[in-house]
Design brief:
The complex is a heterotrimer. Chain A is α/β, with parallel strands linked by helices. Helix content of chain A is 39%, strand content 25%. Chain C has a single domain, classed as MetI-like (MetI-like fold). Chain C starts with 5 loop residues before the first helix and ends with a helix. The chains are: A alpha/beta, B mainly alpha, C mainly alpha. Chains in contact: A-B, B-C.
Amino acid sequence: MSLIEITEVRKSFGANEVLKGINLDVEPGEVIAIIGKSGSGKSTLLRCINGLENIDSGSISVAGAQLQPDEIHLKALRLKVGMIFQQFNLFPHLTAGGNVMLSQMVVKKTAKPEAEAMAHKMLERVGLAHKFDAYPDELSGGQQQRVAIARALAMQPIALLCDEITSALDPELVSEVLAVVRELAAEGMTLLMVTHEMKFARDVCSRVVFMHQGRAHEIGPPDAVFSNPKTPELKQFLGML
Amino acid sequence: MKYVFDFAWLGQYWPVLLKGIGITIELIAVGAVLGVALGIFCAWARALGPGWLRPAITAYVELIRNTPFLIQLFFIFFGLPSLGLQMSELQAANLAMIVNLGAYSCEIIRAGIQATPRGQFEAGASLAMSPIQTFRYVILVPSLQRIWPALSSQIVIVMLGSAVVSQIAAEDLTFAANFIQSRTFRAFEAYFVSTAIYLLLAIALRQVLAAAGLLIFPRRMRR
Amino acid sequence: MIEFSLWDILRNLLLATRWTVLLSLVAFIGGGLVGTLLLFMRIGKRRALRLFARYYVELFQGTPLLMQLFLAFFGLGLFGIDVPAWLAAAVALILWTAAFLAEIWRGCVEAIARGQWEASSSLGMGYVQQMRYVILPQALRIAIPPTVGFSVQVIKATALTSIIGFVELSKAGTMVTNATFQPFTVYGLVALIYFALCWPLSKSSQILERKLNVAHRNH
């Protein structure tokens, strides 16, 4: 059994079908890059896996937790997959430490000292232990995104979804975030990332999914996808870069 | 104008004024805390709550915002007893202020909730929080911070509006002024003094609310 | 004891509603005129006038309308005039309305001025020209929704004049209650009549504001 099983997933917004039957199985420890033009459905796919969007048909399961649109199933699913957003979405009224502690205490009912210890550990892991008491608006974009990663990690997910996590960053801040992701990959974390960082995808990912018009148009190891694209659409997409 | 102003009665009647001030402060303290609490609940229900609850909250808010406080007070104090709901003057005054502020603060707080970036809801959800937990721990505080100035103004308006509770014989500052003028026949002076006291109370209340804001929201928020 | 039908009650209340409407109109129009005057003082060049307008607004917004009514009622009496309730009510409401309208309008002028000021200065216009041709026409447009919205506050505020003895809807409510001993019904009806007067104005204010926002987004 694969860790993440995505089967015939369809999703429409009104008359616009964004996902037209996606199939994808992800093994534990895999790092998957999802690439494609904007509007190809890649972000929607990621958001479906976390239950932020309801799917119209098909099924998604993560380590046996089925995606169902009720609170109990959603909670079980979201405890297994963490998500990092393009816009960081840190909670502005809490410190970096508070951001990392909150859901542990609220959702897992972890006692404060343990949550705090975990927050320290996770911030350490992303290289921001010294920013524990800083508020989000005192941090650079790169630092905010690393706090967001620590926040997701503190819930001890078995997979992480990364939705264009470097797209909102100034170019000079991209590498510090990617370095954290690279480390996570090396430690064996299962990662699904929508990204425009092709070099990173090539270096780090085990498989690349090219999405086009709501379908997983081409899937393969990075070497095959980037050096030897089979479909004209992928050729055109890579040529555009 | 041959009228001679006379404030000599102050020497005898200041305890009456003081008692009235105390009641007015008590009314606004209770009214503000419970009224805002009611407003938070209604704002949640109207913006994020279950579908069946929303029309009821909307009706309540519209009814209160489009009728005078005086009539709300009379309805509660004179009208409700015929349904078997007997209240003291102060209880009725308190209830009227809570119900009134609840409706106004509902709309103000709702605007704060609606100005929340969608990503905040999604971040809460992605961390496995339930919608209510997300509201309580993620959305509420920044929403309140966003609208704190408007909410503070509304609380001051309700405090000044509380002057009419004297009409059901709740013994607030205006009641004290009425009492003094009926004893001393110094109507203008009595109301002049109490008006000045209300002005000071309004200024003080604004300060208190600003300080409370700094206490509840220790951080300035850029977004 | 005489029996009062629901119609008897309603008819008496509706007759008194005329005075609520009339007083609201007087307060709103009079307040609008005085408020315009205050607005020009507040945004004008003369420091003394600016300060006067500012403190005027603070005073009227920082004290209860009921106190203002009492002071008008008893204060005008000090001049030896026997003040009828309607006069005190009209004077107090006009002055009170003026303070709020001036403040609402100042907000609108400032909202426009922030962006437009430099643009029009750079065109070589003087202060009065800028106001006349650039700021005010635009401020007027964004001022309409909150002004309509405030008319609701004026109608509700007229209820307080019942306390100094002006017979309008609220006072009629109390009088009818004393005659019928049916406070629940009577005050319920009074509330509904106020609602019928105010709600259409509240709604139009909201609709106007939404329209304005849409128009602004298309710029």
